[in-house]
């Protein structure tokens, strides 16, 4: 007895259905995202990942997150990604970007970018994601230092360095342990705001070291004036001392970033304002370094298209609003600052204003050669073991030598 045709057709359809279901299951795309966030930043990111997973469930895309301890993060990327054992997508600041690119760890993304997507971001944040003319990530958020002041002691924040010094002198009483200004001026990261304000920097064209440029020397001279002649800064301020002085009403002004705000005591009424313009540099603004956390696609990811879709989703205006209001971050998406709630937030507004004069921290591999020599130079200058020019000359020689050795590798 022959099997009826309709039964054969039904059987075929059943088999095809099973094959389709099997293929669909096989096409599930698992995306692993690494980040270094904690507390509210972590909660905001995970909320967005859940939204992405819900929206893309029908496409079989699922993202899982892993919070990596910050101190171990860079080494883990360097160790795992080349072996295909790391994340598909990861979030990190741009200062390691050049080294990771040279090692082949990060996928270039120019193929995915169009003008509309590029214009989504504050221009300098996109610049921070660019290495040798190629884009390697989408900027997620940025961090800069700005002026944080005690409103009880400083009713109106100074707009110029001259105003700042005059006010700080009135507030300083060293016998009572009070200072008009407190910041980690011996730390080269913080000193960069002064250095860049004078038009200095650590590299010229072609990544040529410029540690001992005349502008850098002038910046160091100005710092010494604030410390010694004007006497408005505490000696060798540590992070703990700066926080303590500010919370006890013994520091009128501080140069610091968003990380400092969480340390301010609840009873302190504080405000934020742009860093002052430098009278000593013809009215040019202080220009702090800007670090930009980007979203990068691993060069070893097996699902690069889906990974980039995640990066794109995390940097939308809607996502940026969550990161801003719930994660307390400063998004690189420039459209979000037109939102009523975001624009009304004094913290977000202040950092957005400051970023207009900020300088993206160099993302080239040679930057890793700078820190130890710059730290030694700052110590020599402040401890008076060498004048600024001599200390920076020594730093220049050291950086030039180390950069040359790096390029031989």
TrEMBL record:
Example of a GO cellular component annotation carried by this entry: ATP-binding cassette (ABC) transporter complex, substrate-binding subunit-containing
Coiled coil: none
GO MF term set: carbohydrate transmembrane transporter activity; maltose binding
One Pfam family of this chain: SBP_bac_8
Organism domain of life: Bacteria
One record GO biological process: maltodextrin transmembrane transport
Entry-linked SUPFAM superfamilies: Periplasmic binding protein-like II
Keywords: Signal, Sugar transport, Transport
Signal sequence region: 1-25
Similarity comment: Belongs to the bacterial solute-binding protein 1 family.
Protein name: Maltose ABC transporter substrate-binding protein
Organism listed in the record: Melittangium boletus DSM 14713
């Amino acid at each position: 007895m022959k099997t009826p045709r309709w039964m054969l057709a039904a059987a075929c359809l059943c088999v095809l259905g099973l094959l389709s279901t099997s293929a669909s299951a096989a096409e599930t795309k698992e995306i692993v995202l690494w980040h270094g966030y904690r507390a509210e930043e972590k909660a905001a990111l995970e909320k967005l990942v859940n939204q992405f997973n819900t929206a893309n469930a029908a496409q079989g895309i699922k993202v899982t997150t892993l919070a990596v301890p910050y101190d171990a993060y860079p080494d883990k990327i360097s160790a795992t990604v080349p072996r295909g054992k790391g994340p598909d997508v990861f979030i990190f600041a741009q200062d390691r970007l050049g080294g990771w690119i040279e090692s082949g760890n990060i996928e270039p993304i120019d193929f995915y970018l169009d003008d509309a997507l590029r214009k989504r971001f504050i221009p300098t944040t996109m610049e921070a994601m660019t290495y040798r003319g190629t884009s390697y990530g989408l900027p997620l958020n940025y961090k800069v230092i700005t002026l944080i002041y005690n409103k009880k002691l400083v009713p109106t924040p100074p707009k110029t360095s001259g105003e700042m010094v005059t006010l700080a002198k009135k507030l300083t009483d060293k016998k009572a342990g009070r200072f008009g200004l407190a910041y980690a001026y011996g730390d080269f990261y913080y000193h960069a705001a002064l250095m860049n304000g004078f038009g200095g920097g650590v590299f010229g064209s072609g990544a040529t070291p410029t540690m001992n440029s005349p502008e850098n020397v002038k910046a160091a001279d100005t710092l010494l004036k604030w410390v010694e002649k004007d006497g408005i800064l505490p000696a060798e301020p540590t992070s703990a001392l700066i926080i303590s002085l500010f919370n006890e009403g013994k520091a009128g002004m501080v140069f610091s970033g968003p990380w400092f705000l969480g340390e301010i005591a609840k009873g302190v009424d504080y405000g934020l304002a742009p860093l002052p313009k430098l009278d000593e540099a013809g009215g040019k603004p202080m220009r702090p370094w800007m670090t930009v956390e980007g979203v990068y696609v691993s060069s070893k990811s097996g699902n690069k298209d889906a990974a980039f879709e995640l990066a794109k989703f995390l940097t939308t205006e809607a996502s940026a609003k969550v990161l801003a209001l719930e994660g307390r971050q400063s998004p690189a998406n420039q459209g979000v600052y037109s939102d009523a709630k975001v624009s009304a937030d004094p913290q977000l507004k202040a950092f957005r204003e400051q970023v207009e004069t900020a300088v993206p921290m160099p993302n080239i591999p040679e930057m890793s050669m700078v820190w130890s020599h710059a730290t030694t130079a700052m110590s020599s200058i402040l401890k008076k073991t060498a004048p600024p020019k001599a200390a920076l000359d020594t730093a220049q020689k050291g950086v030039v030598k180390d950069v040359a050795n790096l390029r031989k590798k």
